[in-house]
Design a protein that fits this description.
The structure is a single chain. This protein is of the alpha+beta class and 161 residues long. It has seven helices and four strands, in the order H-H-H-E-H-H-E-H-E-E-H. A four-stranded mixed β-sheet has the order 2-1-3-4, sandwiched between helices. Strand 3 and strand 4 form a beta hairpin. The radius of gyration is 33 Å and the shape is globular.
């Protein structure tokens, strides 16, 4: 009889308790790793090539003008272009959306070869080339954003003829 009383008391206590939440109800949804967001573009998107020929081949396929910058690590005006001109939102958006952008180090083997072909004697020098490599526009020295736009528009106009 004592066993029955103990069993009855335990049953009554269990019946009076708040029902436990099911394990699935207490689980929080799994945390998914956030997809890495691409970094916002804050500069000119330069094509990753040391040689100009693959860039010209791509320009022929895409029907685009090629924007070329000749620079050197020791060139102070080149640093101005890199830090103050190519980082301006309107400038890099304009260049990125309208041209294939290629830059070459004047001091590298491939850069000096390309510079010799295009008779680049001082830095910075920027060129706008048609897909066959013909110079449409050329400027030596720091090119401000409005000059780059004027030259780029002129180069695209020459391409349409």
């Amino acid at each position: 009889m004592i066993r029955f009383s103990i069993l009855f008391c335990l049953t009554a206590m269990l019946a009076c308790q708040t029902p436990a939440k099911s394990p699935t109800a207490t689980r929080t949804p799994p945390v998914r790793a956030a997809r890495p967001q691409p970094a916002p573009v804050t500069n000119v998107l330069w094509l990753d090539s040391e040689r100009l020929m693959p860039v010209l081949e791509q320009a022929q396929r895409d029907g685009k003008v090629v924007f070329v910058e000749f620079y050197a690590s020791w060139c102070a005006p080149c640093k101005v272009m890199e830090e103050d001109v190519f980082t301006q939102v309107e400038t890099f958006r304009y260049l990125n959306s309208n041209f294939l952008n290629f830059r070459t180090d004047f001091d590298s083997a491939s850069g000096s070869t390309i510079a010799a072909i295009y008779e680049v004697k001082s830095l910075p020098t920027v060129l706008f080339l048609d897909p066959q490599g013909v110079v449409l526009e050329r400027h030596t020295g720091v090119a401000n954003p409005s000059l780059l736009r004027t030259m780029g528009d002129a180069a695209m106009g020459k391409m349409k003829r």
